[in-house]
Amino acid sequence: MRHLDFSPLYRSTVGFDRLFSMLDQMNSDAPSYPPYNIERTGENAYRISMAVAGFADKDLSVEAKEHVLTVKGEKPAEEDGRDVLYRGIASRAFERRFQLAEFVRVEGAHLENGLLHIDLVREVPEAMKPRRIEIATGAPKQIETLSA
Hints:
By secondary structure, the chain is mostly beta strands. It contains two helices and seven strands, in the order H-H-E-E-E-E-E-E-E.
């Protein structure tokens, strides 16, 4: 994939630097571990499901801060005297970041059958929602002045 240069747009735009940095991050090669799905579960509801087999809830942390959701996993080193001949189950530490849109908040997270499910909901404030404006017919109302 080729790299897009957004520097000419910086000269004529104000306030879009976060958008351009997000686009730059999308062009970079992102790590593929652990695998995950993002799904829409309702009109304003989403779920991120991450395959974290072998991790317990105490080994995982989920943090939302300033439009960034960070999921970290770190297992303590196994020193139980086992002699592993082949290691196919990954147990390496990871950190995965997701950019959240405005008004998206984390509703909860739970671990089930080796999958970490993070539920998200978008709550648009009433002031930001579209509203219908009634169109009046007839003559405009006139305010009468009272003489003293």
